[in-house]
Design a protein that fits this description.
mainly alpha, 3-stranded antiparallel β-sheet, two-stranded parallel ribbon, 64% helix, globular, AcsF, EC 1.14.13.81, metal-binding, Ferritin-like_SF, NADP
Length: 349
Amino acid sequence: MQSTLQPGQSKVKETLLTPRFYTTDFNEMASLDISKNIHEFEAILDEFRADYNRQHFIRDEEFNQSWEKLDQETRNLFIEFLERSCTAEFSGFLLYKELSRRLETTSPIIAECFLLMSRDEARHAGFLNKAMGDFNLALDLGFLTKSRKYTFFSPKFIFYATYLSEKIGYWRYITIYRHLEKHPEHRIYPIFRFFENWCQDENRHGDFFAALLKSQPQFLNTLKSRLWCRFFLLSVFATMYLNDFQRADFYNAIGLDSRQYDMQVIRKTNESASRIFPISLDVDNPNFFQLLDECAKQNSNLTSIDNNNQPQIIKVVQKVRAYSSLAINMCTLYLMKPVNSQNTTVIVK
């Protein structure tokens, strides 16, 4: 990922935990039948057309001040938060925009929903990029469009991943907003005041993908789909947990304990997903978060190994141990017995 610093440029190392850009099988997407759920999609489209946040993302006078008062460590952590968030929002914009273009003739209602979601994501990315300008930094979104590698996901994987990312985004934003509403002394920058309405966009997007999943029972009601739902739940939760473990100082700067924050967000997202997915993860199992802690420590160890001055052969051995431990713990988490959602019927295929 590349950003432009005024003057000069900076590069951020891309890892497995970095926000990614996706593409899919557009022909398969166009062939999906939503006719049985058409009224639900029409209602969702009306919500998108209402555009409740049309006048929301407007910078006010509180932004017009110097942010040199932030200490350098907090400043760097916050810039990284803005950069990662902007990249994720822009990734969503590109995917939704392309889907709206490809589906315009075959599924006009779905195409318009994607178009209006891309509008929301573009606003979010633009608002974040303007915030980065307060720190003399801006993401080169044109460069990102041309240079980023795209990960291919089939439509069902797109639905699982985007549904969960939108819902976990809602719970992340609203949890931070409610915390800072009670403790305004920790609100280091005015962008956090916008999170309440902002997260409603995420929630509506999640509801759209929930409707898409419900319209395709083969993506939910088979034994194979249960395994994939389990995989995506764990992937999304673990990615957030490992990322936030490395950025605990940022959450401390806004008065949050990163572990307690992640635990709450995971519990809420898991509960939301249980209304759509045939299973949810057993986050009440005492081993669940303990295993995530171990994964986070090993992931942190990998970063430390890269930065130490040991001979290369020693680094290789250390990395093999860390990766092995990480893999074993992730497999243990995946094999942990899930919780069946209510009123689900499993089709054996």
